[in-house]
Amino acid sequence: MNRVSPLLLLGIYVGFCLAYFLLKWLIYMFLGWTFFDKNKTNIWLESYSALIYYVGFALFPFVLFLVYFDLSLTNLVIIGAIILIFTKILMFYKWIKLFFHQFSGLFLLILYFCALEIVPCLLLYQGMIQMNNILLIKF
C-alpha cells in the first residue's frame, strides 16, 4: 500500500479552500446584485475580505507554533474554532448594521446567515474529510 504524498494532500486542501472562497465570493456578488444596491454590496465584499485577511493573520502565529514548537493539534483546533466563531459573529453584526435597519427582517437575516456561512463551512469540512478518506484508502 503506497502512501499519499503530503504535497498532493496539501494541494487538494488548498484547492478546496480556494474553490470555497471563490464560490462564496461569487454568491455574495450575485445576491448583492440581485437584492441590494451596488454601494452596499461593495462595502460588504470589502468588509468580508478584510475579515478573512485578519483571520489569516490571527491564525498564522499559531500555525508557526504548531510547526516549530510542537503545539498540540488539539489546542490549535480549539483556537481556530474560537477565532472562526468570533469571525462569524463579526460578520453577522456587520450584516445587521449594513443591510437591516429595522428588526422585522431579522428572521430572513438569520436564514441568510445560516445558508451562506454556517452550512458551507460544514460542507467544506465534510468534503475535505471524505477526500482525505478516499485518498488514504485508495493509495
Automatic annotation (TrEMBL):
It comes from the Bacteria. The chain crosses the membrane at residues 7-31, 51-69, 76-96, 102-125. Keywords: Membrane, Transmembrane, Transmembrane helix. This is DUF4271 domain-containing protein.
